[in-house]
Amino acid sequence: MFMSAPGQGVKIMDMIRRPRRLRSSQAIRNMVHEYEVELSDLIYPVFVVEGTGVKEEILSMPGIYHYSLDTFRIHLEEIWNSGVRAIIFFGVPEHKDAMGSEAYNPEGIVQRAIRLTKEAYPEMICIADICLCEYTDHGHCGLIHDGKILNDETLEMLSKAALSCAAAGADMVAPSDMMDGRIGHMRRALDDKGFGDVLIMAYSIKYASAYYGPFREAAHSAPSFGDRKTYQMDWRNKKEALVEAELDVEEGADILMVKPGLAYLDILKTISDEFPLPVCTYSVSGEYSMMKAAALNGWIDEKRVVMETMTAMKRAGAKMIITYYALDIARWLKE
Question: Looking at domain 36-256, what is its CATH homologous superfamily?
Answer without folding.
Answer: Aldolase class I (3.20.20.70)
